[in-house]
Amino acid sequence: MNTLVIGRYENLKMGFLLEDSRLVETINCSGDSILGNVYTARVVKIVKNIDAAFLDAGLGDTLYYSLKDNEKRHIFLRHMANTDKVCEGDVLLVQIARDPVKTKKAEASANIEFTGKNVVINRLGVIGVSKKIDASSKRDELKNLVEDIFEKEKKENELWDECSGAVVRTGAATESEEDIREETIKLLCKQKDIIAASTNRNAGVLIYENADKFMNSVEEIKRRFPEGGLNIIEDDDAIDKLDIDTKLMKLMKRVVNLPNGGCLYVDTTEAMTVIDVNSGRAISGKDKERSFLKINMEAADMIARVLKVRNLSGMVIIDFISMKDPESYRTLIGHIKDVISKDPVRTVYVDTTGLGLVELTRQKKARPLHELLRI
After folding, report:
1. Calpha distance 281→279 (Å, rounded)
2. Which 3 state secondary structure label does DSSP give 201?
3. What percentage of the chain's residues is helix, strand, coil (to nearest 5)?
4. Computed from CA positions of residues 312, 318, 320, 324, in that sequence, does the dihedral angle turn out positive or negative?
5. Cβ contacts of 182 within 8 Å, gap of 6 or more
6. pTM of the model
7. What SS3 class is residue 358?
8. DSSP character for 250?
9. Distance between CA 105 and CA 319 in Å, rounded?
10. DSSP secondary structure string, 280-342?
């Protein structure tokens, strides 16, 4: 049974997702989050060696803005030179793509993006379809539908943005064309209205506030489960009744125990998260390889939980228990790819180094839980 418990925890409004009584994910919306907000911002510095600019949006600290990632998508509100390049003194329209994390600045993007039930409207200039929709014919049908909507808007709407793009979400496969069309047009109009509203505005103006961050996260979780597959409890007392504090603290410790022996040592540094898998006991004999594979598979499952519960991001380096059989490694890597593919935050298997260390990356969006709870 899947249960989402919503309530106050350590003076924060939080959600806790339980699967068969196991804590598998947390969501939060701290009051200082600016994720998803849209601002006008002045370019105060350009650093050529990192191909980035730093912007002042009136937030007290500058924003990091990648010139490479936003190339040809800049939204100039005031331009200081006759060039398509960003210059110091320019005023841009940007959306916050990542909250500040520790010493890292908040990241701003020209990709003004809005998420709906069926589609995500963005400024990436292409239309894509979720790969989780198995049938290629259905993917083609949905892509053609959204392309037709875009073509019509391009001809009829003077606020059309050539960079506008979309991603058709998995849930759209079971929705009607009318619902998809209605939502797509609604989000396109929202994007265009916000861009239009920024015209002639000074730097440091909040154009759009993503006020529903928490409820948007709740809706995201609800969409992952079929009708009736998720029980939602909004009650502060339920956090105590379901012993969520104990469940959470077990996953927040440096040493996280595995179900059938073994443990993880989780160390978070400024640059990365390092996880060491330990067998926890002496293992010998002919079943040694099988035992190590079993512990490593359990570790992969637990690591996926720890990343989601703690909201860890950036580089993740994992030192699994060494195994001799190449087939064991292939089985383990396949399992890792499978479990991280279910993470709602984009998590990618990068490589296995020559020393046998597994490299993952997890997208940075919001502050990790240990910073919010000051653990």
Report:
1. 6
2. coil
3. 30, 30, 40
4. positive
5. none
6. 0.73
7. strand
8. H
9. 29
10. -S---STTHHHHHHHHHHHHHHHHHHHHHHHT--EEEEEEPPP-S-HHHHHHHHHHHHHHHTT
Q: How far is CA 176 from the centre of its chain?
A: 27
Per-residue pLDDT of the chain (375 residues; tens, 9 = 90+): 899 999 888 878 889 999 989 999 998 765 567 888 999 999 999 999 999 999 999 999 999 999 999 999 999 999 887 888 999 999 999 999 988 877 789 999 999 999 888 999 999 989 999 988 888 899 999 999 999 998 888 777 665 577 889 999 988 988 999 999 999 999 999 999 999 999 889 999 999 988 777 777 787 888 788 777 889 998 889 999 999 999 999 999 999 999 888 899 999 987 899 999 998 765 655 688 888 999 999 999 999 999 999 999 899 999 999 998 999 999 999 999 999 998 988 999 999 998 899 999 998 877 788 877 766
Q: Which residue has the tokens 């506008």?
A: 164
**Hey, what amino acid is at 57?**
A
CB 90 within 8 A of CB 108: no
